[in-house]
Amino acid sequence: MDSVTVTPDAEDEAERDDRRRVGKTAAWAAGLILAGVSTVIGFRVADSDGFTPVPQILAFLPWLLVPAGAGLLMAVLARWRVGMLWGVAVLGLLAWYMEPYGHTDEAKGDAVAELRVMTSNVEFGQGTEGLIRAVREEKPDLLFVEECDHACSSALRKELPHADYPYREAVEASGAEGSVILADVPLKSADGIDATLGMPGAVADVKGHPVRVQLAHPMPPVPRGVGLWRSELGEIREYAAEGDGRSTIIAGDFNATQDHAAFRGVLDAGVRDAARIAGSSRAPSWPAAVPSPLGAQIDHVLATPDFAARDARFLEIGNTDHRALVVTLTLHKEETER
C-alpha cells in the first residue's frame, strides 16, 4: 500500500479551513444573539411593549447586557467587523436605557408633613406573618397590602392594633384578589380602580392636607394576558392624570418596570417613582428568591411632585416572592397652597 504524504502547505490549508469554519459559526451565533437582543431593544426605542415575549423580557432589560456582550465577543472571535459595530451599538443602547427614567426635581415649598409608606405583595397571604413583623419594626403611616386573602385580612386586624391603624380601606376577597390599605392618618372612602384584582382607593387627611391614595395591582403580562395588563396599567395612568395636580400616592405591585412603556405612561401622567428619587431605581423587588441585584423592580410607590422621597429600602419578609418596599415621603406646599 502506498503511503500518503501530507505536505506543510496542505496542513496550513486544513488549519485555515478549520479557522474559517469556526469563524463562520461564531459569526452566525453572534448574528442570532444580537438580532434577538436588538429586537427587544428596538421595542424599547420605539416606546412600545410589543407582544409576547417582549414585555416579559423587558422586565429584565439590564440583564440583556450578558447576551449582548457574548454576541460582541463572538463577533470579535469571528473578525466580523459589522458584527463588532452592531454589538457596540447594542451595548450602547442598553447602557443608555439603563439610566433611571423620570424627573427628580426637588419638591417646591415648605415641608408640611412626613409619611412613612410601605407596600407589600404577600403572595396569596403567605407572607402575612413576615409583613406584620416588618410593620411593627418600620411603623409605616400608610400600608398597602396586595394579595391579602381573607386570612391575611383577619390577621392584620388581630395583630396590628386598632389604636395604631384605626383607618382601613379594603377589597375583601380570596386569593390574589384581596387588597388592604391601612393608615394611622384619617382615610375617607373613595372609588378605587375597577380591575381583575382588588385596587381600593381613599383620600387621606395628612395634617389637614387631602392626599389621594390608591393601591395598584394590575394583572401580570402573562403570554395571553398582555392586553389586559396594558389596559389595567392604562386605568392607573388615567387615575394619576385625573388628579390634576392634587397630592396623590399610588403604591403596590405594578407588575411593570421603568422599561415598560405602559408603566412610563403612568409616570408621565404626573407622578414620580419614590425609589428613583431616593436613589434606588434599579433595586429589585421580584422575585425575592434570587439574590440582589438579580430580578426586577415591579413594586413601586409613586407620588406627585409635591412629595420628596428618601430612605427607600426593599425588605425580605419571607414566604412571598416579593420584597416589601418602605420609603419616607415628605409633603411640601407653597404658601399659596396652604
Structural summary, described in words:
With 338 residues, the protein is of the alpha+beta class. Helices cover 36% and strands 23% of the residues. The chain has 9 helices and 12 strands. A 6-stranded mixed β-sheet has the order 3-4-2-1-12-11. Strands 5-6-7-8-10-9 form a 6-stranded mixed β-sheet. A hairpin with a 2-residue loop joins strand 6 (201-206) and strand 7. Helix 1 packs antiparallel against helix 3, helix 3 (65-77) runs antiparallel to helix 4 and helix 7 (226-242) runs parallel beside helix 8. The longest helix is centred in the first third of the chain and has 38 residues, at 8-45. The chain is elongated, with a radius of gyration of 25 Å. The mean pLDDT is 94.
Distance between the termini: 106 Å
Gross morphology:
elongated
Q: Would you tell me the structural class of the helices and strands?
A: alpha+beta
The count of strands amounts to 12
**Widest sheet: strand ordering:** 3-4-2-1-12-11
- In round numbers, the mean pLDDT is 94
Q: Percent of residues in helical segments?
A: 25-40%
Strand content: 15-25%
Task: Report the biggest beta sheet as strand number plus sense, adding barrel if it closes.
Answer: 6 strands, mixed
**Number of contiguous helices:** 9
Question: Which segments are poorly predicted (pLDDT under 50) over 5 or more consecutive residues?
Answer: none
Q: What string, H for helix and E for strand, traces the elements in order?
A: HHHHEHEHEEEEEHEHEHEEE
